[in-house]
Amino acid sequence: SSQQRSIASFFESG
Amino acid sequence: MLELRLVQGSLLKKVLDAIKDLVTDANFDCSESGFSLQAMDSSHVALVALLLRSDGFEHYRCDRNLSMGMNLTNMSKMLKCAGNDDIITIKADDGGDSVTFMFESPSQDKVSDFEMKLMDIDSEHLGIPETEYHAIVKMPSAEFARICRDLSTIGDTVVISVSKDGVKFSTSGDIGSANVVCRQNNSVDNKDNETVIEMNEPVSLTFALRYLNSFTKATTLSNTVTLSMSKELPVVVEYKIAEIGHIRFYLAPKIED
């Protein structure tokens, strides 16, 4: 099976 | 005071059609440079970034930076009341709690205004760095939409692989599997029909088809779409909007356990 990562985890917040 | 006059009002109608099913509420940010939006879908898997540059408007007045929280379903309801040939003007007062959409028919014989309540939206703004992508595929947007639609009848995910041979879209499901390969072609007559592949190194990523299908609602905005991919990074699906800007969808890849 494959995991779906959150898009926010790829970018910097702020 | 904010006043933005868009002669080709249909573009705004199309933009809303493209994003309203993906994003429920969003802040529209208005600054000297343009009218923009950045928002994630409710499951935080995809992100949409819209930019309509100020120089693409016939009249653009934005006295100070303004962020306007809007419910996109409601905004879409209002914009549906504009004719396809109408000029749309967006108006708001600094610190006000509403936005007005004014629609003018091309012959100026009908003028409507629709006022919509704004809302407070607590949204996180993400910094998206400029990235060198391993592969960039430009292809007809209708072709991309067709492939996503076709493959989603077979499976839930698609593997997009770019190699020197072309771009391959693969899926599999309970009933079987499917592969679609698009090779680079050069159309002398019409650049919009071209598939152009720029590749620094081969890349293969897996994505949920339902998000890609949602992105293809932007197909009416542009004849071409660009897919930018790097290993283990989100794909960027970009539709240019005439002479005025772009809409970019970012989708996180699925990663094998």
What attributes characterize this protein structure?
heterodimer, A: 14 residues, mainly beta, 2 strands, 36% strand, B: 257 residues, five-stranded antiparallel sheet, 14% helix, 46% strand
Helices and strands, with pairings:
The complex is a heterodimer of chains A (14) and B (257).
Chain A: E1 2-4, E2 12-13
Chain B: E1 2-6, H1 10-19, E2 25-30, E3 34-40, E4 46-53, E5 59-62, E6 66-71, H2 72-79, E7 87-92, E8 98-104, E9 111-117, E10 126-127, E11 135-140, H3 141-151, E12 157-163, E13 166-173, E14 176-182, E15 196-199, E16 203-208, H4 209-215, E17 224-229, E18 235-241, E19 245-251, E20 254-256
Helix pairs in contact in B: 1-2
Describe it for me?
Chain A has 14 residues and is mostly beta strands. Chain A has strands spanning 2-4, 12-13. Chain A has no helices and two strands. Chain A is rod-shaped. In chain A, 7% of the residues are buried. Chain A is 0% helix and 36% strand. The termini of chain B are far apart. Chain B is built from four helices and 20 strands. In chain B, the strands form three sheets. Chain B has a nine-stranded antiparallel β-sheet with strand order 6-2-3-4-19-18-17-11-15. In chain B, strands 5-1-7-8-9 form a five-stranded antiparallel β-sheet, with helices on one face. In chain B, strands 14-13-12-16 form a four-stranded antiparallel β-sheet. Helix content of chain B is 14%, strand content 46%. Chain B is mainly beta and 257 residues long. The model of chain B has no long low-confidence stretch (mean pLDDT 95). In chain B, α1 (10-19) packs antiparallel against α2. Chain A binds chain B through residues 1-14, and chain B through 40, 44-47, 124-129, 157, 206, 208, 233-234, 250-257. β1 of chain A pairs antiparallel with β20 of chain B, so a sheet runs across the interface.
